Amino acid sequence: MYDVVGIRFKKAGKIYYFDPGDFSILKDDFVIVETVRGVEYGKVVVPRKQVGEHDVVLPLKKVVRIADQKDRMIVEENKQAARESYEVCCEKVNEHQLDMKLVDVEYTFDRNKVIFYFTADGRVDFRELVKDLAAIFRTRIELRQIGVRDEAKMLGGIGPCGRMLCCSTFLGDFDPVSIKMAKDQNLSLNPTKISGLCGRLMCCLKYENDEYETAKELLPDLGEMVGTPLGEGKVVGLNILERVLQVEIKDQERVLEFTLEEIIKEGAFSIQSTD
Fold first, then answer.
1. Exposed (0-12), middle (13-18) or buried (19+): which is 232, by Cβ within 10 Å?
2. Which of 42, 16, 17 is nearest to 28 (CA)?
3. Interatomic CA distance for residues 198 and 53, integer angstroms
4. For residue 28, what are the contacts with CB-CB under 8 A and spacing of at least 6?
5. Which tops the pLDDT comparison, 215 or 197?
6. Among residues 139, 144, 153, 146, which one has the least CA distance to residue 109?
7. Which one of 32, 192, 230, 242 counts the least CB within 10 Å of its CB?
8. Parallel, antiparallel, or unpaired: how do β-strands 272-273 and 254-259 relate?
9. What is the strand order of the sheet 63-66 is part of?
10. Looking at the DSSP assignment, which residues form a beta bridge with residue 114?
11. Rounded Cα distance, 41 and 35, in Å
12. What is the phi-psi region of residue 166: left when phi exceeds 0, alpha when psi lies from -120 to 50, beta otherwise?
């Protein structure tokens, strides 16, 4: 087992584990750590705990120190420098007539590198742009192409539900989302209704998917014949979340609702299929 603390470097970024060493680190503390990108400033979101060897990437890097007021001032200065660098880079992109959209700029804590995030429809030859930026900022330059979901996560916004985007507020990772999830939830397959600001399927389609999959395993299929307290009938509708079936009673020409429990009491519902 390993003692670790979980640290985020962005508001809704991925959580990384570090060795807290002998420091008394509490949740919501800010710390300085050594990462593959260099020295970074992060927030503790998971307090000290023990995890197994399979839950961490070895060797664990250690927390350098707990951040102080001077470190916070450096972070603010870096943010201001990033805003200025954004304007400079936009001018250079236009000057080189590159088909790319600059999304965000980020300095590492130690100013050892400045990262420019951009979107583009295809590959972009930005070698001349990098030369210009390196001459201006005199530090390591990295241009990183990102997807539209990452762009939405960085920029934020308000989703169709009226709330701030999930990806920019609490989602650390993007889970795969498929059109099958929308079908299972009986949602409209109109792309404008099930797509987020990024143009991709909404992340929230994933939230209830497990519940729908579990319910579908318990419930009979549409068109299946089942036994009810009023006799045999054909399933013509399903309320998956409430486990309620709409059944057309045989020889009565009417549709009634029954709970799954009522159907189960009448025995196995897989009597026969009417495909």
1. middle
2. 42
3. 37
4. 43, 44, 45
5. 197
6. 139
7. 192
8. unpaired
9. 16-18, 2-8, 38-51, 30-35, 63-66
10. 107, 141
11. 10
12. alpha
**pLDDT score of 4 more than 80:** yes
Task: Indicate the DSSP class of residue 53.
Answer: G
Q: Please determine, for residue 79, whether its predicted confidence score (pLDDT) is greater than 80.
A: yes
E strands present in 52-184: 63-66, 101-107, 113-119, 140-145
**Contact criterion met (CB below 8 Å) for 141 and 116:** yes
Q: Which residues fall within 8 angstroms of residue 127, CB to CB, at 6 or more apart?
A: none
Show the CA angle centred on residue 15, arms to residues 14 and 17, nearest 5°: 145
| Separation CA 222–CA 273 (nearest Å) | 9
Least confident of 65-74, 164-173, 185-194, 235-244: 235-244
Could you give the count of Cα atoms lying within 13 Å of 136 in the half-sphere of its Cβ? 17
Q: Which pLDDT does position 239 carry in this prediction?
A: 85
DSSP 195-234: B-TTSSBPGGGGTTHHHHHHHHHHSPPTTEEEEETTEEEE
Reported as a single tens digit per residue, the pLDDT across 86-110 is: 999 999 999 999 999 999 999 999 9
142 contact partners, CB below 8 Å, separation of at least 6: 113, 114, 115, 116
pTM (2 decimals)?
Answer: 0.80
How many Cβ atoms are within 10 Å of 27's Cβ, its own excluded? Answer: 12
Integer-rounded Cα radius of gyration of the chain: 27
Cα 35 from Cα 262, distance rounded (Å): 58
Q: Which of 24, 58, 41 is nearest to 111 (CA)?
A: 41
- Distance of alpha carbon 261 from alpha carbon 244, whole angstroms: 9
